[in-house]
Amino acid sequence: MSGPARRVLVLGLDGGTFDLLDPLMEAGELPFLRSLAAKGIRGPLTSVYPAKTIPAWYSFATGRDPGELGVFGFAEPTDAPGQSRLVRSFRPVEAFWDRLSRLGVEVGILNFPMLSGYPLHGFVLPGMLSETSVTYPKELRAEVERTLGNGYPGELPTFRDAERDAWVAQATEAVRRRARAAASLAEQHRPGFLFALFRETDRIEHQLWDELDRPVAQIPADLLEFWRAVDAACAEVDRAFRAGGGPAVTLVISDHGHGAVRSDFLTNRWLHGEKLLVFRTPRTLTLRNMTSRLALAAQRLPIAVRASRRVADLLRGGRHPDLARLLDSASFEASSARIDWKRTVAFSYPVPEGIYLNPFNPELTPERRNAILADLRRRLEAYPEAKIEVFQPEEIYRGRNLGKAPALLIRVDGMETEPRMDFAYPKALIRNRPSYFYGCGTHRMNGILIGAGDGITPGGALGTTTLLDLAPTILETMGVAPPPNLPGRSFARQLGRAA
After folding, report:
1. What is the CATH number of domain 7-259+443-495?
2. How far apart, in whole angstroms, are the C-alpha atoms of residue 473 and residue 492?
3. Calpha distance 245→7 (Å, rounded)
């Protein structure tokens, strides 16, 4: 292939949502993104479910949904009860940039979440899952660090309340350094396709959504500076990419949206209360119930609120491992050894939105599965304190790997209530979240899509699109026929589809 019909740059803003970006653009805080939207098209981008970073970005890259990939979260079950392993990659499924690479288009992948780079026509600098990941080619990391003068930024450290200002400053600097790295690689390698992901946006939204969900004039100055840095980073990478010459298109996308988390639903607590998850000793959770009730009651006292936040700070990040292990005794992993696996019917692990039927229960025959699933669905949908939507995998996925999916998936209160897998509290539903809980923001289905460039008519109508639509769209935009069996719908004509 002599060269793509148009070069394509994709900038990923993890967790990006118009609910936040629109007010910032209207206030003039994001001039590049505002101009990009004015010069091109924009619209909501629907995520996959669960709307988690790993399955979402992997679905974007491959054009396949989680059911085809067999990837539903950050981790997957092993053959041992209560054990899991980290998802390593979307491979051996092919990413759309692998197709471009085989056709001779140089591609660049920066900060995509996977453990290791792999050979292709171009370069890969992985992100998120490993700060010491193997790049492709191996010397790429050294090249980037020479450009930056020191290390390439990894994931942000664990957030602590007492270190909020320094943490936001670190996030802002990481965005700037990542942009310099991406711009330098664009200038030096001139790839036909470049993907660069900014993960810091999601981390900021998780921790500080309550400070962002305000009129722009009331958002703290350092958070406005962070978003200005994100906007400037997008502009810097865009300029460097377009300097490579030829017709080009820039897409700004997110893997999912974001919003406030208002409640928590402890799925395993609910299953235990329904006598579907059984401990070997009936009074296993008695002590934990007492301490958690005290912790919740203490939240009514201002001095206890301040003290609990300080204790939470001490525990985050492994500074006091012995105390952390003691208080973590309610996690599913720590509790799994006390579960009676021969009598338990169902559990939630390692995907919080998923309920799995117990393969270690000898009485759970294949013939009983359908009746058990129907009963579980009925009970969940009838739960009086929250709206719980229940899906069987075949209702929302396609593909050959549905056997790896949870038996059921749940969505609670339109994702304003976050499913959790632990046994930390005596009731399944926590409506008044304690102030020491980790984060105040959580994911939504509504991501973002902004696109502009050569061949795109400004103001073109763009209906709702999905992450699965991007792979065929990008391929067609670059003059490459997508594989015939991709489920997504190409909207390349609205990007001035290449002949």
Report:
1. 3.40.720.10
2. 5
3. 9
